[in-house]
Amino acid sequence: MIVNLLNKLGDLVLYYMNQAGRMGIFLVLVFINIFKLPYYKITHITRQIYSIGALSIFVIIFTGLFTGMVIGLQGYNTLRKFGSEGLLGSAVALSLIRELGPVLTALMVTGRAGSAICAEIGIMRNSEQLDALECMAIDPHKYVIAPKFIASIISLPLLTAIFNVIGILGGYIIGVGLMGSNAGSFFASMYKDVEFTDVNMGIIKSLCFGLIIVWICSSKGYFVHLERKGGFGAEGVSRVTTNAVVLTSVAILVFDYIITSLMI
Amino acid sequence: MTQEPIIQLVNVRKHFGSQEVLKGVNLSIFTGQTTVIVGESGQGKSLITKHILGLVKPDSGSVLVYGKDINTIKRKELNEIRSRFGVLFQNAALFDSMTVFDNVALPLRERTKASEKDIAATVNEKLKLMELEGSNDKYPAQLSGGMRKRVGLARALVLNPEIVFFDEPTTGLDIALSNEMYRVFYRTQTKLGYTAFIVSHDVPKIFKLADNVALINDGIIEESLSPEDFQTSENPVVKKFVEKTMGHIYESLEVEG
After folding, report:
1. What is the CA A166 to chain-centroid distance, rounded?
2. Strand runs (DSSP E) across chain B, as ranges?
3. Chain B: nearest CA to A207, how far in angstroms?
4. Quick one: B168 and B71 in the same domain?
5. Which among B78, B95, B81 is positioned nearest to B155, based on CA atoms?
6. Same-domain pairing of B167 and B235
7. Rounded to two decimals, what is the model's pTM?
8. Residue B145 sits in which domain range?
9. What is the tens place of the pLDDT at every residue in B219-238?
């Protein structure tokens, strides 16, 4: 029985090490292909930016607005206890720019575009479309995956910027418009306390999250046929898509801590 | 017809988990010929195709295409070899977000420097050969099974390949459509003169097209013979397969016969 248990444990460890190795090689191959000639037609990239970035704008605006509003509400009530309502602007802006903007944007994009990337590539694998590309001497890493990488790395910082601006607007509407905080001190405190390093941290985080989303989601879809529990058919793709979204979300939160601890 | 193998599998072995699917496959495919591989389901027929295409690496043994082992050559060389291949997958493997025209045009757009005007002319010519005129703007989901296969074949032939692989070309088609598929195959092979490798279940009809029939059984190629010799072979495994696939349906008739 103990031997059996050890066998199973060994199998599991080998499987996950194998998977990690596969994903690592996949990442390297995609990066090589990004810079390899021939370069892309611009439509390859713009189509992906539209699908990953532009189609996510509405959900980002919506989430950003309500996140800003709730920070405005909570922040005003907390700061009022210390008589520091004037600092509401910097509280809203700093929490959004440094932390909530990049993280929530990444989580929303994971749910909306990451799942779509994983499912699309998984279906392409299961219906032999990726094999067909290879047989036509067209490298799927270059033709299918690399444009998604470029688009995700471009889109995430832009979506995060939109999230931040809308979030600050939401905080302003609640803090100044509803709760009656002073508009001048809202913007003055923001101007005084937000530094370039804060913006920098937000941008670096969003770039890393963009890479994490597209890496995990596309590699999970790409290797759907090698999944331990079977990656075939609709059920296989749905299972692997769920796994990809969960793994990406966890990875975003873990890397958020790591990047913060390195940059703070 | 020269008797020079264009593709050679030498003692190819492949296992998945604890199951050994290919147990030392030896097979030669000759220039200009049509080789058909038959065998019961799950014997590894499609797996052999994937080995030749370089999509799966063998555990041991070698796959020689144009005299080169495709598992040891560089990616660039492999791509050069693949650009001389055309593949019709079992489910056609069309890109479902692209129209018929874009599907067929894809290899030309990505592999050649042809202008859009030349691409359109080539694609339309191939679609005409498949009797698919007027389907340019349709999506794969709007096509019938037979049409999808013909679009898949048009895409496989668009770069005028030297070797064309057919993975179960008539599976899922009714008798009329599968006959139509065979007519398309005959017409295109006569016109373009490619070497064909067909994986099929459709015995005995497929024998009419074959120059060579290979039977895979229990992970090895049992025999590779001309269709006539295959049907009269004394090899017990081949004999059993022939009886099973071409014999009487009713037991009483078998006894009477």
Report:
1. 18
2. 5-16, 19-30, 34-38, 60-65, 68-69, 85-88, 163-167, 195-199, 212-217, 220-225
3. 29
4. yes
5. B95
6. yes
7. 0.86
8. 94-160
9. 999 988 998 998 888 889 88
